Amino acid sequence: MSVAYLSDKKISYTTKGSGPALVLLHGYLESKEVWETFSTLLDGYKLIIPDLPGHGDSDVIDSPHTMDLMADAVAAILDKEQVERCIIYGHSMGGYAAEAFARKYPQKTRAIGLVHSTIYPDNEEKKANRKREIDLLRKAKQKLVVSGMLPKILAKSNLEKLRPELEKIVERANNFPVNGIIAVLNGMMMRPEHTINPAIPFHIIGGNEDNFIPVSVYNKMAADNPTARLDMIEGVGHASFIEKPDELAHKIQTFISGYVDK
Q: What total of structural domains would you count in the chain?
């Protein structure tokens, strides 16, 4: 494990491999460990896998944890690693952070990929759900929040066979600092709608059984970003990196080899 610092706060991350820099950002209530098995399928890259602020082994930095702050955390890691440009993929909330990174640091962004994520801001229903989670967290009901949210990342058809992997994610999330989770929830509610710079190769990856993002939203993102590539993976929900890791790795490597400058 390595450490970078932002505002004198610790940002934990791991690196592995060599080659072009590829950053993998986890989602809400996750940590760098969710990429552990999946990352073994990606050869030929220097993988940089952080714990985003308030998650895993990284410190709580501020309140709220805006997506811009998370982008700054990634930039701090790249500076520590002396990486000038990277390909950046983010899962769900990590996708929001990747969008912010591409907007704030276009000169550092070779390509961006959203894995079960969206460029659109929270609607009122989503904001209300996040506010309910904040209320529960303030009432010391972290385990209720975690157990209510995390099982939904899997397609119903995958839930039983992947329960051991899910339980590891749940166990870690139950130990995250409450103020960090609240900071992230507030930060996600503040997200504006993002427009991806058409000069930056843009990869959208979705699952046809996603419990959070309907297929119509993935199709709309592709229509709103005509230079983007959309890949839908059958038989997965909101977590293809554990539901169908081989297929996700193939989609990413195919996109990078075909669309990203060498």
A: 1
- Cα-flanking dihedrals φ and ψ of residue 138, to 5°? -70, -15
Residue 64, preceding bond cis, omega within 30 degrees? Answer: yes
**CA 93 to CA 61: how far, in whole Å?**
17
How many whole angstroms separate alpha carbon 4 and alpha carbon 74?
9
Q: Cα–Cα distance between 259 and 262 in angstroms, integer?
A: 9
Q: Domain with 145 in it: what CATH number?
A: 3.40.50.1820
State the virtual CA torsion across 96, 40, 233, 31 in degrees, nearest 10: -30
| pLDDT digits 0-9 by tens, 240-252 | 999 999 999 999 9
Q: Which domain holds residue 238?
A: 2-259
18-56 residue pLDDT tens: 999 999 999 999 999 999 999 999 999 999 999 999 999
Position 76: which residue type?
Answer: A
- pTM > 0.85: yes
Tell me the CB-side half-sphere exposure of residue 133, using CA atoms within 13 A: 26
